Amino acid sequence: QVQLAESGGGLVQAGGSLRLACTANGRTFRHYAIGWFRQAPGKEREFVAGCNWSGRDTVYADSVKGRFAISRDNAKNTVYLQMNGLKPEDTAEYYCAATGTYGTGTYNRQPKVYDYWGQGTQVTVSS
Predict the structure, then answer these.
(1) Cα torsion at 116, 41, 46, 89 (round to 10°)?
(2) What does 47-82 look like in DSSP terms, one character per residue?
(3) Which tens digit of pLDDT belongs to each residue from 66-116?
(4) I want to staple 72 with a disulfide (CB 3.0 to 4.6 A). Which of 14, 68, 79, 111 is the partner?
């Protein structure tokens, strides 16, 4: 079992940057693909970015491509989400999630394939 904890959220002005971290316990963290999702009030949870177990294979939502970057350090049991050029529409609760499977196409964009979820960290972007 994997327990995940997000950190790094906060309040930032439009155009600013934040780096979120998703830290896991458990010795098998390196075996899991990781996804970042976000959920704004009144909206469905949406996929933001994901990576495979090594971090070499990454996928992004079109809305964040070119602005956000996902990376991981398995030695530290941590996955990062570097967010640059933040916009007010990026305001949401951000969650990381882990799954033991990594597929092609849209597979890892689906919340249902993830087995473990963190509690979330709030990101607020002011205009």
Answers:
(1) -130
(2) EEEEE-SSSSSEEE-TTTTTTEEEEEEGGGTEEEEE
(3) 999 999 999 999 999 999 999 999 999 999 999 998 888 788 999 999 999
(4) 79
